Amino acid sequence: MPDAFPDESGLTERAIAGDAEAFGELYRLHMDAIYRYIYFRVDNEKDAEDLTERVFLKAWEALDGYEQRGNRFGSWLYRIAHNVVVDHHRRHRPLFSTPLLERGDWTSDEPGALEQIIEAEEASALASAITNLPEEYQQIIMLRFVEGMRHAEVGEIMNKSEGACRAMQRRALLALHRKLAGLREEIGRG
Fold first, then answer.
1. How far apart are CA 67 and CA 55, in angstroms?
2. Residues 98-104: contacts with CB under 8 Å, at least 24 apart
3. DSSP code, position 70
4. Confidence label for 32 from pLDDT (cuts 50, 70 and 90)
5. CB of 142 within 8 A of CB of 48?
6. Whole-prediction pTM value?
7. How many whole angstroms separate alpha carbon 157 and alpha carbon 146?
8. Domains and CATH numbers, the chain
């Protein structure tokens, strides 16, 4: 698999050897993606910032035990991020908060306000449906559709084969479809 960051391997080797500047560069390369992954799992900026820092702190502390076995350093970071998010959720439920409508500042004379409200409600329904999926399904949906990763990359992070990731994605999307259909049916009756 081609390296997303051509110099990542060399930076990783230097960081393992104790080069703090190399680790700083790895941090710079991966921080936005790790933050985004966490943010969409916790839906809170402050928590996402804190958890992102925790991921990199854990990575720094465990760096001497990291072995480059063909997997990207970024994949290792995503595994750490997944574990940090799971630990966070064990202490703070639910997995997603859904007050998306509260984030808007819509007024009745703002152009497109209705469309924004409808879009926010749809996003809220989607987040709610994702929350009710098994943890692995949530993770694969986030990595594939929010982070835009290829199946091979997702497989590295989830310790599964590319084929297993494709099959899991199919099951996750079917389960999500059923959840959303159930929500639509509920709304139709309400």
1. 17
2. 98/43, 98/124, 98/127, 98/128, 98/131, 99/124, 100/124, 100/127
3. S
4. very high
5. no
6. 0.65
7. 15
8. 1-93 (1.10.1740.10)
**Strand, helix or coil at 180?**
helix
Residue with tokens 């879009």: 119
Let me know: does 66 contact 16? Beta carbons within 8 Å: yes
Burial of 84 (0-12, 13-18, 19+ CB in 10 A): buried
112, 110, 109, 50: which is closest to 85 by C-alpha?
50
Tokens of 135: 């943890």
Phi-psi region of 113 (alpha: psi -120 to 50; beta: other; left: phi over 0): alpha
Residue 130 CB neighbour total at 10 angstroms: 21
pLDDT computed for residue 90 by the predictor: 79
Q: Which two tokens stand for residue 87?
A: 């630990």
What mean pLDDT is predicted for residues 62-77? 82
Residues 6+ apart with CB under 8 A from 91: none
- Amino acid in the structure at residue 189: R
Decide: 134 and 24 in contact? Cβ < 8 Å.
no
